[in-house]
Amino acid sequence: MSAIDYQAIFNEIINDLDEIDEVGEVATYIPELANVDPNKLGMHLTTVTNQHFAYGDADEAFSIQSIAKVWSLTLALKHLGADTWQRVGVEPSGTAFNSLVQLEYEMGIPRNPFINAGAIVVCDILVSCLKNPKEDLLDFIRTSSGIPSIEYCPVIAESEVKTGHRNYALAHMMKGFGNIHNDVDCVLDLYFSLCSIKLTCKQLAQAFLFLGAGGVNPATQQQVITPKRTKRINSIMQMCGFYDEAGEFAFKVGLPGKSGVGGGIVAVHPGKYCIAVFSPRLNASGNSVKAMKVLEALTSKTELSIF
Ligand code: GLU
């Protein structure tokens, strides 16, 4: 079978997109995110055989926000293994990413590790397991991605602290239920730092390619995590990676992925590629409007998805 010309497919997708009006709004509830140019559009696809295809603002660094929660889950699984699932579930939430309601009636056990409550519990696990949580998590992110220059962004983290009232509420409620073991400020410091990381589409496609390659990062040849846990992370991305729109993403795109309110989406085609798309205008669920359209067009035009 001949190799797919993803570059030609990107060009076709862009031509089709030009006909679509600019819709959606950039996230403003984190003040620093409101400063982003809403019309940016970048995409980068890296295959497991190290071929690269890019378009537009693929080398523009942006706030990856919740996409980083894939790393915290990966590291928690390495440390706590299956016991992680005593503290957080593996079911889609069907509620907004920062919702408090479900958490109250489910006794402080978040539905999954990607909604804010679940990611905060995962950060609590890391605070318990790691000697120097912020440094050790960053170290893991750098080595697993093969990108030693990755840093937390203090300006974005500070911006989140100032307006993170719902996250404080979630953490305190879970502490009340006994599902946060450490000091809330310390756990949220790790959580906000994690969410503050800025990367380009090109870097993101490299960083999460291990999920398309059985847990091995092809760029470094490092086994980041076992194939069995790679399967688990991909399935959680498939079911829970898009807030209360995970069904919509599975229906339209058919790949495991994770979005962030900075306008980025990472999607993985196991055995084939990892792609990152960045476009800051979000729909009401907090997912990038154009990034979803690009990925839907990609799997439709190639006629290849996991289904
Ligand atoms: N740091 C953001 C928050 O806590 C993450 C939101 C997201 O990307 O889902 O609200």
According to CATH, the fold-level topology is Beta-lactamase
Percent of sequence in beta strands: 5-15%
C-alpha geometry: globular
How many β-strand stretches? 9
Helix content: 40-55%
Structural class, judged by helices and strands?
alpha+beta
Question: How confident overall, as mean pLDDT?
Answer: 95
CATH superfamily: DD-peptidase/beta-lactamase superfamily
Largest sheet: 5 strands, antiparallel
Q: Which second-level CATH architecture applies?
A: 3-Layer(aba) Sandwich
- Biggest sheet, spatial arrangement of strands: 2-1-9-8-7
How far apart the termini lie comes to 19 Å
- How many domains make up the coordinates? 1
Rg from C-alpha positions?
A: 18 Å
Poorly predicted regions are: none
- Element-level helix/strand string: HEEEHHHHHHHEHEEHHEEEH
The CATH first-level class comes to Alpha Beta
Number of helices: 12
Tell me what you see in this structure.
With 307 residues, the protein is of the alpha+beta class. The protein has a single domain, classed as 3-Layer(aba) Sandwich (Beta-lactamase). Helices cover 43% and strands 11% of the residues. The chain is built from 12 helices and 9 strands. A hairpin with a 3-residue loop joins strand 8 (264-269) and strand 9 (273-278). The radius of gyration is 18 Å and the shape is globular. The two termini are 19 Å apart. The mean pLDDT is 95. The structure holds glutamic acid. Homotetramer. Belongs to the glutaminase family. Pfam families: Glutaminase (PF04960).
